[in-house]
Amino acid sequence: MKKVFSIFLLSLSVFSLHADEGMWLPLLLKGIEGDMQAAGFKLTAEDIYSVNKSSMKDAVCLFGGGCTAELISGEGLLLTNHHCGFEQIQSHSSVGNDYLSNGFWAKNRQEELTNPGLSATFIIRMEDVTKQILAGVNANMKEADRKATISANITTVSAKTSKESYQNVMIRPFYYGNEYYLFVVETYNDVRMVGAPPQAIGNFGGDTDNWVWPRHTADFSVFRIYSDKNGKPAEYSPDNVPFKPRSFFPISLKGVEQNDFTMVFGFPGRTQEYLSSYALSNLMSIEDPIRVGVREARLAVIKNEMRQNDTVRIKYASKYAGIANGWKKWKGEMKGLKKTDALSRKNAYEAEFTKFAAQDGKSYGNILQNLKSVYENSYNDLKTAQVSYYEIFSAFESVQLSRGMEALLTSKDDVSVNKYRIGAEEFFKDYDAKVDKKVMAALIPLYLKTVPEKQRPPIFSTMEAQYKGDWNKYLDNYFATSVFTNQARLTTTLTKIDAEKIKKDPAFALMKGMMDWYISTIEMPFKVNEAKIDSLNRAYMQAQREVMTKRVFYPDANSTLRLTYGKVEGFSPDDGVKYTYFTTLTGMAAKQESEPQNLDYKMDSRLQTFQAKKDFGQYAAKDGELHTCFLASNHTTGGNSGSPVINGNGELIGINFDRCWESTMSDVNYDVTQCRNISADIRYVLFVIDKYAGAGYLLNEMKVVK
Ligand code: ARG
Ligand code: GLU
To answer: Pick from 285, 333, 677, 703: CA 20 to 30 A from residue 232's CA?
Structure first.
């Protein structure tokens, strides 16, 4: 009896999908509408996604390359995260005009700042085009032929799709290429910066608190989309007008309570929930640890330099944040996967799969065997070489700059040279040779020590011999002579490119030595293995859907628009520890007090005054406090940054900006006991805009529900 019970429990945890798990395609919400309503959603699937009337999806856009934003006014005003607008805030900043430290608020539309390269993309409609895209494809085809057929079908279907001239078509694979969906999209390229709080508010807690609860960050910034006079997408022009969205979110000041329904609507980037145990093990023992190790060393050097020099601090702020973000996330992922014993869970799941597959009478059994042999025979070794190569190669800034020069050695036409010159100017704006040198001095010995000789480019051994192991001497020469470490030298070089001289440049030589080895030795076998894995994963995905009939399979995230729902709730990250679902400004002040030396906890002094007087106006919660952030069980990932967090009435209650540390594993192993997303409470956001920044005029265009 006892045994039966425990098996039952195991299969429940292995198969059943907790209501909070899943990133759903808005087109297919009809199927879960009832569940959502039972959980507290008061509207309908049609209110979220409709092709016939304006719906919630018209108020959500892809912001820049990888974030989400939501419209909050009929005049193109949008909210996203501070860290999503960070590049823009930084690029408008200088030591004399430091918007990072002081914040920025446009007092009128003329003061809004333009951002070349920044875009906002809306989904107009989506369609299942699996049949058309897979026409002519069969299971016995070679992977390359399959790809060619699909790519030809994509071209044909895209061309046939009816759309306006200013719209684009995008077709994406789902379920590892077992299904395809088409999206008609509109992209707006005139997106201006309206406001951002100082870093001490918008990034309070900095890297200390990143990926961690409790949190007190008002991680938001405000932008406005502009269109041409007809409301259509247009490049920047002073004649453009504020964009009139088909829909925007009303904002609720009613706050959130424990167990309230919440949903998050946005563009999650990438998850891999259906990986095999072999892939999971590769991630846990190769990919994550290598990345974490290299970045740890790299960050220590940059941080030290940033502390000592304000110019370096501003130049490296955005780079540092990006490197640190990945580093800490992978560390948390390793921790969470270990703690929840994710590998045993996968193994148990695979055993169940194998059992059901055998009962089914189909020969699905060897898919897993085949995956195992690809990973164990060569992929694991190739992955070690690949990940360590990329982590170190991308860390050498001057090496990166030299890459673009290669093409100029053969075609020195003015247009190409000029393009390179512009890129180089951008590069040097945020470059410091001393930092680059110190990073290389730290990483090269680490690389040689941790990566076996067979798995790294021979140029390192050549250089080591040439300089008798004295890397400082190598780097002294490198930085004294390379044109890629000094703007003046590069400018002179570009007036007349001398190919022979460039080839001897130490940065260029290192770049060539590394890349040539990678392309000749690693890239080809790596691609061959990946193609095998792709095709096995596709078969495995399909088999899981056919065999595991009790499990609901939502497609992995792929930067397309998704909806996820759950509820407001805390959790227990460790034995004896319980996280409550919200934080307050009082807690922010306490954090500063507990660690006065920690610069990440330096609270803004004016904010402190509001705190001391408890002067929160209409933004105070019932307990008289200003609630800052809250936890919920919404299944989110990178790309969901800036996403609207919405209550059962379709009103905005927060802005999603992070996950808890133990939750970052949800990309491969969602566990509702551990996985929580972190949002800034919308009352905190409006308080900062209105009372703190004095930009309350922006509220006039919003629809605030009290
Ligand atoms: N972890 C969040 C995300 O993945 C926020 C990163 C920005 N914050 C920071 N302190 N670096 O984007
Ligand atoms: N901060 C992340 C982003 O930039 C969101 C947090 C997550 O990965 O869940 O998208």
So the answer is: 703
**Quick check: CB of 197 below 6 Å from ligand 2?**
no
Pair of tokens at residue 84: 């999503």
Q: Is the CB of 325 under 6 A from ligand 1?
A: yes
605 is a catalytic site residue: no
The catalytic position among 55, 58, 73, 83 is: 83
Ligand having the closest approach to the CA of 207: 1
Check residue 16 and report its DSSP letter.
P
The answer to whether residue 658 is catalytic is: no
What backbone torsions phi and psi does residue 252 show, to the nearest 5 degrees?
-95, 130
Distance CA 312, CA 431 (A): 8
Task: Using pLDDT thresholds of 50, 70 and 90, give the confidence band for residue 9.
Answer: very low
Cβ of 638 below 6 Å from ligand 2: yes
> What is this structure's pTM?
0.91
Pocket-testing residue among 63, 637, 666, ligand 2, by greatest number of atoms within 8 A of Cβ:
637
Contacts 24+ apart (CB under 8 A), 342-346: 342/280, 342/284, 342/665, 342/668, 342/669, 343/277, 343/280, 343/281, 343/284, 345/13, 345/14, 345/669, 346/275, 346/276, 346/277, 346/280, 346/669
Q: Is the CB of 328 under 6 A from ligand 1?
A: no
Residues 164-208 have pLDDT tens digits of 999 999 999 999 999 999 999 999 999 999 999 999 999 999 989
Residues with Cβ < 8 Å from 632, sequence gap 6 or more? 262, 566, 567, 568, 569, 581, 645, 676, 677, 679
User: What is the average pLDDT value for the chain, to the nearest integer?
Assistant: 94
**Residue whose CA lies nearest to ligand 1 atom number 11:** 321
Supply the pLDDT for residue 551.
86
| Mutate which of 658, 665, 668 for ligand 2 pocket (most atoms within 8 A of beta carbon) | 658
pLDDT surpassing 50 at residue 7: no
How far is it, in rounded angstroms, from Cα 518 to Cα 504?
20
Query: First-to-last CA distance in the chain?
Result: 55
594 is a catalytic site residue:
no
Does ligand 1 come within 6 angstroms of the Cβ of 268? no
User: pLDDT class for 549, splitting at 50, 70, 90?
Assistant: confident
pLDDT of residue 13: 38
Q: Is 636 a pocket residue for ligand 2 (Cβ < 6 Å)?
A: yes
Distance between CA atoms of residues 478 and 510, nearest Å? 10
- Provide the pLDDT for residue 532: 94
